[in-house]
Amino acid sequence: MSSSTIPSGVPADKRKSDKFLSFSLNEMTYGVDVLKVREIIAHHPIRPVADFPPFIKGIINLRGKIIPVIDLRLYFKMPEAEATEFSAIILVNREHEGQKASIGLLVDYVNNVMNVDFANMERIKIPGMDEEQKSYIIGAVADNDTEIILLDVDSLLTKEEVEKIAEEL
What we know:
This protein has helices at about 70-75, 130-135, 160-169; strands at about 20-25, 30-35, 35-40, 55-60, 65-70, 90-95, 100-105, 110-115, 135-145, 145-150. It contains three helices and ten strands. The protein has about 170 residues and is mainly beta. The protein has a single domain, classed as CATH 2.40.50.180. Strands 8-1-2-10-9 form a five-stranded mixed β-sheet.
């Protein structure tokens, strides 16, 4: 991927890869940079933890490491849904303002890895979108008949949310 194919509206720090793992939430398709994905976990018990924001579903113990799990439906202010046999946790490595953390993203189901042509990416504006939401949405691309919203994993949580999680764990 050459920089000449990337529109100037896409910040350089959000162009790490042209491969994205796509997944679904509430019948919408999203994607995260595959370089941020550590692994995909199916059917893993999530232990609820008190005093976390509602979008933090709880924690998992993965090979001795405690990892917080974010229910992306709740984080994006979508209706909550029961986990199904297709639900998965995408374990990602996140870095923001010098803070590194592994977090789990609870999704309805994982689709596939796709190539993204940044030249065809659209910057999107969603009515009512606040500044926080603008920070974690890179843009949108079309793949056949599906629109995919690309997310910046590093911007999903605010510094305050990361600090709150860190002090509780």
